[in-house]
Write a structure and sequence with these properties.
Structural class: mainly alpha
Radius of gyration: 11 Å
Strand content: under 5%
Distance between the termini: 16 Å
Number of helices: 4
Number of strands: 0
Length: 76
């Protein structure tokens, strides 16, 4: 999955948000609809989509969508 595909899937976690509104440098925790449920959805995406375990700490320490993508895709 490339970064744009990730952004498209990521945007689905935000009701009514167009993927074009999200850029690699978007600080996702600043988005209006960001919540703990969204964080759990990202954890589930990492597990089901990539077979990787991502913790709340992992999510909190990344700032941008691209950092989140890199963490999930490149996590050992």
């Amino acid at each position: 999955m490339d970064l744009q595909e990730f952004i498209n899937r990521f945007a689905k976690f935000f009701e009514g948000m167009d993927p074009d509104e999200i850029q690699p440098d978007t600080e996702y925790q600043e988005l209006d609809d960001w919540s703990s449920i969204t964080a759990l959805s990202i954890m589930a995406l990492a597990k089901t989509g990539f077979g990787k375990t991502v913790t709340g700490h992992d999510i909190r320490r990344s700032k941008t969508v691209e950092e989140l993508y890199d963490m999930i895709v490149n996590k050992p």
